[in-house]
Amino acid sequence: MPDAELLRQSGLRVTPQRLAILEEFAALSAGTHLSAEDLHARLVQQRSGISLATTYRTLNLLVRLGHLREHDFTEGHRHYEWVRHADPQHHHIVCVVCLRPVEFAESAVGELAREVAERHGFALSAFEFEVRGVCATCQG
Q1: pLDDT tens per residue across span 1-16
Q2: CA-to-CA distance for 90 and 110, rounded, in angstroms?
Q3: How far apart are CA 80 and CA 67, in angstroms?
Q4: What domains appear along the chain, each with residue ranges and CATH number?
Q5: What's the average model confidence in pLDDT over 125-130?
Q6: Pick from 11, 129, 130, 127: which is nearest to 62 by CA?
Q7: pLDDT digits (tens, 9 = 90+) for 41-80
Q8: Sequence-ordered list of residues with C-beta below 8 angstroms from that of 36, at least 6 positions apart, any chain
Q9: What is the β-pairing status of strands 68-74 and 77-82?
Q10: Distance between CA 140 and CA 134 in Å, rounded?
């Protein structure tokens, strides 16, 4: 579970709001993604007293520092996930109806990314792969 030390190591002041957000993400199971609104609703339910604006600012800060990843699964509908440094590279398939993301790991995706980068003279530093479709539940 993250603690105040993680914030201090990043050069941040330790605030109850920042700790609450980090603790919420650390408690999620791997593969769980939250929107800012979902996170805010969870924190309000816990009576944290955090505003939606503070939630957004803190999420943006934690993304810049590399503690969270931000995904724009659909236009304007951003989700966040905790960066677990031991996690292997993973990708997402997202339902365009219910917006549910599902993680998957395929080594072939990484091989393709390296091949494309090499073919075009790039030194690959990072890549993301996202597939969109309609999940079985939404297909009816």
Answers
A1: 457 888 888 888 989 8
A2: 10
A3: 10
A4: 1-85 (1.10.10.10), 88-140 (3.30.1490.190)
A5: 78
A6: 11
A7: 999 998 878 999 999 999 999 988 888 888 887 666 788 8
A8: 52, 55, 56, 59, 78, 80
A9: antiparallel
A10: 10
